[in-house]
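Task card 7
Instruction: Convert sequence to structure tokens.
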Amino acid sequence: MIARAAGLLLALCLACAGPAAASGSDSLYGATLTAPGGQPLALAQYRGKPLLVNFWARWCAPCRAEIPELIELRAAYGKRGLNVIGIGIEEDGEAVADFLKAYEVNYPVGLGKEKGLWLMQALGNSRSALPFTLAIDRKGEIVMRKLGRFTKADFEQIAERLLQ
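Output:
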């Protein structure tokens, strides 16, 4: 009975937090994840910067397909201030580190299966489906939410607004 009530309370809290937080990025900036090497990755350091946040997992084929484009976007637009962050819905830091090395990922990645799922829901992905990408401008406004594979064409639609 107590476990059922606790589960119901958690579901209600997530339902309440999701829509309210979905309008902004405060829940993202308040989070600290763990990098594959074990060090903390505080997302507050990205406040005020143009940002692509990509939720992914190694087992997700569309996630793996979009990583090269995210790498290219970071390389091409990093000088204009674009930051890219990956949030792996993973717990095995060693396996993720090997994966990132194989893909030559050039952007920071934080891990957090439970925290990552919560963040996705809080930021508007109520289905917790992958991949999920957000584009956040310097003001902290979410200018795009994309459920499914994120492409360079998606970025080009919002690039100027994001990089202003």
